[in-house]
Fold this sequence. Notes:
There is one protein chain. Helices cover 34% and strands 12% of the residues. By secondary structure, it is of the alpha/beta class. The protein is globular and about 60 Å long.
Amino acid sequence: MSHHHHRTISRRKFLGEASCAAIGGTTLLSSILNLGAINTLAARPHIINNPNDYKAMVCILLAGGADSFNMLVPSTPSEYADYQATRGSLALPQNALLPLNYNNAGRTFSVHSGLDGVKNMFDNGEAAFLANIGTLIEPVANYTQFQSGTKKLPLGLYSHSDQIQQWQTVLPQNRSAIGFGGRIADILNDMNTIDQVSLNISLSGKNSFQAGNMYNEYSISRSATAANLGFEGFPSYFSNAGHLNDTRDNAIESMAEAHYTNIFQKTIGNINKQTRDSVEVFRAALGNVIPINNVFSATSLSGDMKMIAELISVKQFLGANRQVFFVTYGGWDHHDDVINNQNVMLPILDNALTEFNTALKQIGMFDNVVTFTISDFARTLTSNGNGSDHAWGSNQIVMGGPVAGQNIYGNFPSLRLDNSNPINLSSRGRMLPTTSVDQFYAELALWFGVSPNDLEYVIPNICNFYSPSSCPTNPGSGYTPLGILS
């Protein structure tokens, strides 16, 4: 079902007001905006319908908080010794890890044995890692600043519901319903040529990442085909099935086309019409899918990634020059049995990523797509006896042709828990993030086509980290871009 809908005001006025609302507003305000208080932004000055200007990003949410310090592990002897001493029963044997082809001033790293495909992509320059990244409002340098009360900290730190939302909304000071992908759609949706089809497509239903002030996600199932997409019809054996189907369609048309004075009735009518129109566009597009054979495994995640590859293959039938896809792979809240759980789940993630990489090459779209993981938070370095608990800074994967791969971006922290480690926040080993989600998302947004002048709307706290031209002051100008995208 499509949730794509839109409205109109002066673009500049909207951006100014919406940026303030995003910082100071509430979820209720966001909901009101989504119900129809504002209209479509004026058209952006982008090249329209240029088949050579296609870009897509794919966000994979590892819901529950993945223990990512067992996904990426330091292998330099002294640093591995710190890892082993701190992680205790959760430490992976060094001879079971897969060494990366990477050496930064003597620092080397390995990955979990279940990530052999990611290792190969990394070594081939097709993937990279983001080290110790997390949600921040402003830079926090060390434990002293964290404790001092002088720095703004994310709401509900270590809370699943808050942290999972903040990774999606990049607004940690506010329980906002509007997300990074949604705000990008507010800016760039007019780059696509079929208005009934949202720039944002979800394989996991409603989500915060793709919720915008004007545009929301189109939700689709991994099993969707041209034959089964849309409203249920009356079966052929049902008496007068064709007449009944026509009657149903006419009734939906009448409801959609009716003129309402009540804003809620009008909104629902518009959604019904847009849903019907979107379904028809997708149905036609799926009839032209490029076959992707003998690539994907039978898991749900691989099925989601296959559907994304198929939708990318029919981008021209969807009128798409820009697309944002969202997938959830849940079950990472491993307070118990973390080692065995990751031995099962990481190969599923690894297969889906490598299969998707292969499919993109098969359809000629490898150089146009960036895929990345996000998760609520990392987990404590120390064991709770059988698993690990909620922490903060984490390690994430980013891959694709536009990625400057074979690199680890950000600062992988020391895993020592004594007083020599200024970013360790507790005896359990909770790492203060040294790279903000804002910095990573800014590079994604700029690569995707967001103007530097609009970056503060898409990422409201970006001026705290480095200064695009729209920032009135540049307190974060000392922070340089990570350089992830080539």
